[in-house]
Write a structure and sequence with these properties.
This protein is an alpha+beta fold. The protein has one domain. It contains 2 helices and 3 strands, in the order H-E-H-E-E. A 3-stranded antiparallel β-sheet has the order 1-3-2. Strand 2 (about 40-45) and strand 3 (about 50) form a beta hairpin. The longest helix has 11 residues, at about 25-35. It is globular. The mean pLDDT is about 90.
C-alpha cells in the first residue's frame, strides 16, 4: 500500500469499506491504513474510490 499511496495511483475497492472497519480482517487493516493516511471513500456505483483529501 505504501507504493500505491506514495506514487499517487488510483485506489478502488470492490467492497463497501464501512462494512469492514474494525472487524480484524486484513481488508479492515488496509482500510484503516488508508484512513490513517487521509483517504476517504466515495461510492461510485458499487465500486469505492479511495481519495486523499
Amino acid at each position: 500500500m505504501d507504493i500505491e499511496t506514495s506514487s499517487g495511483r488510483e485506489i478502488y475497492l470492490s467492497h463497501n469499506p464501512e462494512n469492514y472497519i474494525g472487524d480484524g480482517s486484513f481488508y479492515s487493516k488496509e482500510i484503516q491504513y488508508l484512513m490513517d493516511n487521509g483517504y476517504k471513500f466515495d461510492d461510485e456505483g458499487g465500486i469505492w474510490h479511495a481519495i486523499r483529501r
